[in-house]
Design brief:
By secondary structure, the chain is an alpha/beta fold. The chain has 13 helices and 12 strands. The protein has helices spanning 13-20, 36-43, 59-64, 83-88, 101-116, 119-127, 156-169, 183-189, 196-202, 222-225, 245-253, 273-277, 292-309, and strands at residues 4-7, 24-26, 48-51, 70-73, 92-94, 148-152, 172-176, 191-193, 205-208, 233-236, 259-262, 281-283. Bound molecules: (2R)-2,3-dihydroxypropanoic acid.
Amino acid sequence: MKPAVLVCRAVFPDIVDRLRAHFDVETNEADVVWTRAELIAHLQGKAGVFVTGTQPIDAALLDACPELRAVCSMAVGYNNIDVPACTARGVLVSNAPDVLTETTADFGFALMMAAARRIAESEHYLRSGAWTKWSVDAFAGTDVHGATLGVLGMGRIGQAIARRGALGFGMKVIYHNRSRLDAAIEAELGARWVDKATLLRESDHLVIVVPYSAASHHLVGAAELALMKPTATLTNIARGGIVDDAALAQALRERRIAAAGLDVFEGEPAVHPELLTVPNVVLTPHIASASLPTRRAMANLAVDNLLAALGAGEHAGRPPTPLNPEVLG
Ligand code: DGY
């Protein structure tokens, strides 16, 4: 009998076919966002699960699904998965790093530029029929080229954004991260490590790319926003909850910072109602990695991990991107 696996959300059919060749696969073709109880019910008897960045996998769920041996996510962020709880139960966890780095960096840069140059705000104005004449300062924003790019979190995606800023737009790059980059990478990116307060004070365009954890919850709130320049922009492509959305909406409304670009939100898909009414923010529905080739690569990597973790045919072996390789023995 083939092992049973669950694919939690609708994904590309040919990618599910890769799983069907080896497993008894249950899918969610209707793409229902299952409650926790529904997820636990669907996981009964499953040896593996393909998740996205949104299904919470914690100790209580694992205890309710004792046959589970592998949790493979197509997201790079894994704050929805309690990795130590999985490790304690011998459950392999994998995420999907690298394959989305450049696509996500493209989007972060685009969102930053849209905020700086007021693209969404001016497009809404034009569509509303309000444009009757050209004006010298209409929707005049802030420059990106030559400005100071501040990167909060300097992992793979942060470095890809820094590279775009430094090499493509002649930006001065400063960053804050728990650990400093190697001197050679700093030199390549022309990037300088600064403390968090300096980053906030000096950035013309702040881009947030830190992973979400209890330690990064509200890493940018009212006190941090108060340090920023009134001409600065803030872009968050990391996770909701890192920025205090209520404090950000207020800072935007009072023009204490110029503009923001947000792809992620606290409690998404709900969006703080104040953010929906301030004009100087560009809002997108968590799509930074959403180019078709990249979403396919992310899903294929999750499948590669699942096949290897459950020892499927010629794929048996070490999963390519495990988060807790110690369970492999
Ligand atoms: C990721 O991969 O973490 C993206 O945010 C999509 O969830």
